[in-house]
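Appendix B: complex inputs.
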Amino acid sequence: MNTKKLLMLGAGLALLPVIGFAQETTEVAEEIAEAAPSFDEIGPYIMTTLLFLVGGFLVFWMAAGFTMLEAGLVRSKNVTTQLTKNIALFSIAGIMYWLVGFNLMYPGEFNGYVGGFFNITVLEAVGLGADEASLDYASVASDFFFQLMFVAATASIVSGALAERIKLWPFLAFVVVLTGFMYPISGSWQWGGGWLSEMGFSDFAGSTIVHSVGGWAALAGAIVLGPRLGKYKDGRVNPMPGSNLALATLGTFILWLGWFGFNGGSQLAAGTVGDITDVGRIFANTNMAASAGAVTALILTQILYKKVDLTMVLNGTLAGLVAITAEPLYPSLFGALWIGAVGGAIVVFAVPLLDKMKIDDVVGAIPVHLFAGIWGTIAVVFYNEGTSLMTQLTGIVAYGVFTFVVSFIVWYIFKMTIGIRVSEESELTGLDLSELGMEAYPEFSKS
Amino acid sequence: MNTKKLLMLGAGLALLPVIGFAQETTEVAEEIAEAAPSFDEIGPYIMTTLLFLVGGFLVFWMAAGFTMLEAGLVRSKNVTTQLTKNIALFSIAGIMYWLVGFNLMYPGEFNGYVGGFFNITVLEAVGLGADEASLDYASVASDFFFQLMFVAATASIVSGALAERIKLWPFLAFVVVLTGFMYPISGSWQWGGGWLSEMGFSDFAGSTIVHSVGGWAALAGAIVLGPRLGKYKDGRVNPMPGSNLALATLGTFILWLGWFGFNGGSQLAAGTVGDITDVGRIFANTNMAASAGAVTALILTQILYKKVDLTMVLNGTLAGLVAITAEPLYPSLFGALWIGAVGGAIVVFAVPLLDKMKIDDVVGAIPVHLFAGIWGTIAVVFYNEGTSLMTQLTGIVAYGVFTFVVSFIVWYIFKMTIGIRVSEESELTGLDLSELGMEAYPEFSKS
Amino acid sequence: MNTKKLLMLGAGLALLPVIGFAQETTEVAEEIAEAAPSFDEIGPYIMTTLLFLVGGFLVFWMAAGFTMLEAGLVRSKNVTTQLTKNIALFSIAGIMYWLVGFNLMYPGEFNGYVGGFFNITVLEAVGLGADEASLDYASVASDFFFQLMFVAATASIVSGALAERIKLWPFLAFVVVLTGFMYPISGSWQWGGGWLSEMGFSDFAGSTIVHSVGGWAALAGAIVLGPRLGKYKDGRVNPMPGSNLALATLGTFILWLGWFGFNGGSQLAAGTVGDITDVGRIFANTNMAASAGAVTALILTQILYKKVDLTMVLNGTLAGLVAITAEPLYPSLFGALWIGAVGGAIVVFAVPLLDKMKIDDVVGAIPVHLFAGIWGTIAVVFYNEGTSLMTQLTGIVAYGVFTFVVSFIVWYIFKMTIGIRVSEESELTGLDLSELGMEAYPEFSKS
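Resulting structure:
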């Protein structure tokens, strides 16, 4: 796969001190210069690797965004638990994706670098020579780093929907299954070059593969788990306002920022004029869809309820982002605008709908990630000529059936065995004191 | 304008799959390799586009910074409203700048890419060929993305000053006018290659064009709107402490981080040794000016009031940043130090001055962005030899007169027609409950 | 040094429609164009400079992380003081490192650019020519910017441990000594090419040089300063829970994000296949160690205390990060996992140990940065073949003795002269009201 003409570089690189100060590197630099491959050969590899690293740390940042969003939208008596769940799920995702997920999702990729037993992810050697690298792509480590952040996002989605009544450890057990197996298996259908990819399904950065998968898993969990005590009482929906809207807004901004990496990095290349220009298009479209989602929710809640609803605006923003994720490249800015706007509208109408069905989704994760994710995946057909509605629907249904059914079974088994719900007393006291013995705001508690 | 020698690349790029899996890209890569332009030709374009994307997401992050700063400095009864205004203004700015602003500000730029009707911004084609790109600059989308973030900053400045008594929708209507028309029109005088640019005015990243414009619009608004109830009573200034200084400090750090993109990205080039080295200078100077502003406010408040005042330190930091924004490149680190220090001092003296004039600027936006912005624009003459004090003053006055007068008229018309101020009762209750029906911290309210 | 073969590029560059300074840069561009070096020559310089700028702003962000972590872990009556200390220490570090530290730490580096009197840092000229640049390294300004952020991290560590009872100004005076002299002097032993470097000591990104140095200075301070009133009473440890765990968690995520720059940027090169691939390895390993530290603390606190302890999980995450910092490149992902896991375990066992010794470390900075820092420095020998346990221990002891002794003396002199501890009354009231006269959450105070 690699051009093998750069063998001489090895010797020079081997001399490279790990921390190269000027006086040392000067000599080495001269030696390298003689044998160095030209930037025409290595430039694209370097740029794409950089794209994965920058994109990856931006998507990492989304973990903080989900955490703040969810911590802000639960009641103060459950904040510590929500914080704990989020940092734990991210950490577990990182380990499971290394242990199983990455090589399950991209079978046959990066040949020579996959491990043996249990398919553990193995990185390239230190100081890789240009002749050993996949010069037409990027470093395995950077790719692993980038992809890992996506699976963590999926798990974060589930965390929000099931807040305020789920037990910590059963939730984390589900994260193990989701990030190690469910997400990688279904992800491989498309991004691993599997059957949906061959059929022509298109989901650029994962409206379906990441977001709706998280949403389906959350939906199954919410049904098996049941609503919070007192949420639906005497035929009425009892509002349970979030404890800290400043945190929730911060979380939304963090997610918005991270999404530039989520969508932009999914270009998977940055070393040609066409690729870097496309990344620019994706950034601009992503921002536009978010803006349109926000403004739509702003206007709609004003019209429908005569008062702007900030939590709807936040979720409208996120729904705009989810909606553009399946195809952030081909739409014009106007396309991004209306695709995002429809996403925002979906949230405004879907949140009360779920409540009517007595499905208790604490942070609105299902409307945002599942419903807007489906919408975004359908909307691909308007701008990407290589796609068909039929294929897009096939993909949507395939991911839906697989994730919902498997999630439902897993949640149900957990419910019947270890139990997934805290006691009524714990729920009323709040999970922080009853489960963790630690309040998030010990000096500000009401009463 | 473009060198036309790279025609062959088109075919290769057109074959590029949007998401390039290894097995697919290998073949394409080989094809491209034959016709690919060298990195000497495309490297600068790629690097400058990358600068705009990274700089752009950093400046995006400033939107979160303004939001947290302002949410922390208002009283808890107005936090939800402040959060809502900020996410809404950013979203509206993004739409207006696309619809009108960008092409109004940079007329004639990017020929071939400007739209027809209403001057809507149109991006380059997907998978742009190297022969179609402005290889001596950067991708239009990345430039649009970067510039868009600046107009949003201007609007954020206004938001803070007018907090705690302005109605939501009239404020957002002003944002439409400011981001779609006022800022782009005056911005074009300099950055669009207009009369001030021809005269030799110098404002590297916008001490005047962005910050003082925001400050002038805020000042006009604060005068038309009047102070908060009870702020100036019986000849005394009644302190109304912010509800959450941790958030305000977070906001300041976010802004500081974003400012590296704000000033660094304004180098507008990153593909030569000189350019990337200059970006490094700008980063170091920007950090120094912020540090100097903070330390100055720290020392001055200790001397003047015998107690350090954290909100002054935060605003001193920001004033240092605003002051260096007009010329972050030419000053030495010592130059950045004293320019930033004067900025910090300005804030310490200007905040009580405004209060004496009974101009109620809730977060100190006018001292920080207007006064320190003027100072920074003047300070350019000390280090940039190509500038003259007369020209700098001309620019300062031009932006001041235009922005203040137009803003005043717009605010006045709004006041006379739709009304810009909430009722006394609403103001006393707090805008969150009276206007939005949603508290930011429902469980922590006093009493 | 430059090849002169790219003359044709000039015409294209001359047409540059740079926004703003078009008329000025055109001439310059023409001059440059004639002699433009190829990307093979300048690419590495540009990429490494970019690495320092991106790495630097990520490490900058850690200042916000420390601030939020510490503000969240102190009681609400001391939050304003903690916020003030953190923004002040960062600003002072920036000034001291410019004034003395940088040239003290890297003597003889960047010849031609060091200043005269007092060794003030001087940057390269604006618009540096490729023939004047250190093409085998990076821009001085970017390097200064990057290194500066490390010294600030050291000071932040001290801030957390000594919270809730130290006076503001004596603390800041210690920061002057630490960032201007102590850290640069000891840092030069290794990173300045000094005796430890020659001996073969290895500390990639500073488990010892940055983190344990901060930890030693904090330990000396904690001993001289004594515990908070009532912390150890009647043989019992009195828990004083932090006021805002959401902020503390946000701070941890911010630090985690910043650490990618901390470790990744310490590769000090990004312009070859080997270097950028190594940066990818470092990112992946850094993330793995953090995850492992978190999961270890999660499981251990569940086993030991039957309840998960979020603050332990946060500190376990940070300890994992500190532990991998000495050698984030050579370990496999499995190596990063167990090195980070041991770091997490250290925190769980060391926090109660310190309490037994009545050393009051408010935020757990000593276990995280000192103990896990020592561990990480030892762990280098398992994966980096060029190192020996003896040399690693020599380095650990050298930094420990120097920093602890000098810090102890400085703290002791301060204690005997200006006094370092607030009055008992002030401590009970809280430093915010007694020292600064400003509450962080004025509307949410208890009672």
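The longest helix of chain B spans residues 39-73.
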